[in-house]
Design a protein that fits this description.
Oligomer: single chain
Radius of gyration: 20 Å
Strand content: 15-25%
Number of helices: 8
């Protein structure tokens, strides 16, 4: 069943406009009587019925809330991703959304090859937000990850307070992510992932000064897109809901 996200809260009657309405009308060719799942900003999910279609609008009637659905993890994960080359960020955003990440912060670091001006930064942010929304619809999430504006690493370090924050660093030889998670409880995690070329010695030192732990993802050096998804998967498996569906029933 098609899933939509709305900006406000669920009401008895709702109107879908914009890109979602056009997709429903002209791509999916919906008709009155068909049913659609809707999720609001609070993650509340409901089943609705289409009661009317106009040229640019679809009218919905709320049938019932799906209170038994639990599609969001109990933990919060913020992925701090240094900008990779090409379209790798598109892939990272899509898969991170599927894995339940709550927020993605794109970061410019020393070894980043790509450099965006202000206009391109805004366009990339909008593009990645759209990818996150589509991925969330596809996998049945109750909310859409927020894609933050592109920022620099030093600014992002200021955001780490209050999180179990760690930097995935290829030069770390002692602490694995699994060991780190065993020694740290909590509901909020922030993962720092470097670009191609990794973090510089100075950047790693800045993180250490801020109290951000350095961890290893194993003996092999992973590509940035692989490292991001591996780290998120490990955290969701150890602390979140990944693989635990049978236990929750």
């Amino acid at each position: 069943m098609r899933r939509l996200f709305i900006d406000g809260t669920l009401t008895e009657y709702m109107i879908i406009e914009g890109d979602d309405a056009r997709h429903l009308l002209y791509a999916m060719r919906v008709k009155p009587g068909q049913r659609i799942v809707v999720a609001d900003k609070k993650g509340i999910i409901a089943e609705t019925e289409i009661i009317k279609c106009e040229a640019q609008r679809v009218f919905l009637h709320l049938l019932h809330k799906l209170s038994d659905q639990k599609n969001e993890s109990d933990i919060e994960i913020v992925l701090v991703q240094c900008l990779p080359k090409g379209d790798k960020m598109d892939y990272i955003v899509q898969k991170a959304a599927e894995l339940g990440v709550n927020k993605i912060i794109p970061v410019m670091s020393c070894n980043c090859v790509v450099r965006y001006d202000l206009e391109k930064r805004e366009k990339r942010q909008q593009k990645w937000q759209k990818i996150a929304e589509e991925a969330s619809k596809q996998c049945g999430r109750g909310s859409v990850p927020q894609i933050a504006a592109i920022t620099d690493l030093s600014t992002c370090l200021d955001m780490a307070e209050g999180y179990n924050a760690c930097i995935c660093y290829e030069n770390e030889k002692h602490m694995s992510l699994n060991e780190y998670l065993k020694n740290h409880d909590g509901m909020n995690y922030m993962l720092f992932i470097g670009p191609e070329g990794g973090f510089t010695l100075d950047e790693a030192a800045q993180c250490k000064i801020r109290g951000i732990n350095s961890i290893s993802l194993g003996n092999r050096i992973l590509r940035t897109e692989t490292a991001a998804l591996a780290a998120v998967t490990i955290v969701q498996y150890e602390k979140g809901d990944l693989g635990n569906q049978a236990q929750q029933k």
